[in-house]
Amino acid sequence: MNEPSEPEIPNEDTTLTANALKAMAHPLRWKILCSLGDDELSVGEIVEKTGTSQSNISQHLEQLRNKNIVTSRKEANRIYYRIRNGQLLTLIGTMRTVLCPANLDDRFPPGDE
Asked: At 21, which helix (H) or strand (E)?
């Protein structure tokens, strides 16, 4: 019997996916994404929530924007950012649940949340 073959995934797609995941894997960028959640926040609001400098936040937001993870809009002299779409928001929420420290730390037995 012939087993069904897995669909071939183009190398370009895997590279895009890996680059997006790598961009989200940086601790400050992850903190930015968690701060955004399903909100749209100005750079100043993100600075307040993350506790780091505006220039640092701006650099990391630019990287997230270049990987199409967040999108921005300008209103007067402020720039607002949000997670690009609902699918990314769901993925980030799932990653937060699965990869939260309690689920990764051996000190917490499975099911003891």
From this structure: helix 11-25
Per residue in 76-112, pLDDT (tens digit) is: 999 999 999 999 999 998 998 888 766 666 666 665 5
- Is this structure's pTM higher than 0.85? no
Alpha-carbon distance values, 97 to 63, 69, 91, 93, 100 (Å): 24, 19, 10, 6, 6
From CA 100, how far away is CA 95, in angstroms rounded? 8
Domain 27-104, architecture per CATH: Orthogonal Bundle (1.10)
pLDDT tens digits, one per residue of 8-22: 777 777 888 899 999
